[in-house]
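Batch job 17 of 40 flagged for manual review because the log was empty.
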Amino acid sequence: MRLGYYVTGTDTGVGKTLVSVCLLHALRAGGGTAVGMKPVASGCIDTDAGCRNEDALALQSASVPRPAYDLVNPYALPDATAPQIAAASAGISVTLPPILSAFRVLAKTADAVVVEGVGGWLAPLADDLEQAQLAKALELPVILVVGIKLGCLSHARLSEQAIIGDGLRLAGWIGNAVSAEMDFSDEYFVLLRRALQSPCLGLLPHAPNAAPGSLAVHLSLPVQA
């Protein structure tokens, strides 16, 4: 594996999966291979193939080569709530080793791996497992997804400070226009560019019916040392 990113957000529902899928398309645009991973996913449904999560399936579908689902999503939790609550409800203990094992397999199969976290940066994966610990263990720089909505300036600045304060390298941030009815969205984007220390890697327009591959052109991949 030559490249990799850990994708987090300013909150839940800001478009981490959309950005992660777009990143996979952007990484593959140069002819390389890229696979996605959602280590812990809540809100999974029972299927004939097993417990499946919509976001993890989107990452799997955008991956080339296409990995086994269990590698993409080692912890599939049924209840659509915080991972700690969902895991306790399912009688599952979320720990780091199975995630690292799956990641190592994925990393051997592709030029890049995009790992999507849960909720916002300080949303724990388990009682004793923070996202900062996982990103450090995977040795991945972080990309922050900022949903352009009321409150995003504070959420983005706090998230950036927390990521950097946790000792992670923040490769940059990506804005996502989560609503077509957001007033002053352009002005908010300008303010975010001024307020954040890390580079802006693009802005995804509000286009709910657009194919992720077509949206990937709005992203600029960071240089990874």
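Reviewer: the log was empty due to a logging misconfiguration, but the result itself is present. Residues 15 and 154 are 18 Å apart (CA to CA). Unflagging and moving on to job 18.
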